[in-house]
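Researcher: I'm preparing a figure for a lab meeting and need a structural model of a single chain. I don't have an experimental structure, so a prediction will have to do for now. The sequence is pasted below. Please return the structure as tokens so I can convert it later.
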Amino acid sequence: VALFETLLFSPALFHLQTPTRFERMAMFGVALQFVGLTLESGADQQKQAHKRANPDTPIRSGFYRLSRHANYLGEVVFWTGTYIAGIGSLTNAVQWSTASLGLVAIVMVMLGASKSLDARQALKYKDLAGYGAYVKKTPLLFPFTGGDDLDQLVTDAQAARAAKGETNAEEEAEEEERRKQRDRDAMSPYARNKQPWDL
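Model: Understood. Here is the structure written out token by token.
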């Protein structure tokens, strides 16, 4: 994990060693970091608020109209900004390789996480009205890249589960945990924080 984080942050570290040769590009990169951070944190807030109000439905509004995994998109945009801001400070092949590996790695990690979450959501929400249309028109991660066919996602997810030997026990455990969370959320703050010694 430390190596991965170092690769990601290497453009900023190289910038500390060597001032940028491209001031405007660095400013653009910092602006892109701000956009990515705003997108990621805004998407996380939207998803959290939606899940509090509608725990059994996926979010399909706000930033999630651009991407089914808008928070992951924000992460990619942030690190792309870091890379661009540091380009003017990269002076040799080792620095270029290190910085580029970090960017490629974060894109691959976020794509993998998006596909994994998408498979679980396809199985969970396949019968939800309007979800198929949402998946068809909204891209997985990057805007303007087109959506997917829900039936194909479900088929692929079921095949992957069968290959791993997973059963419905996992889904039942997840549903039980959601039920417990709803029960906890419905409790008063006193009941939630009550200690064994309280009367």
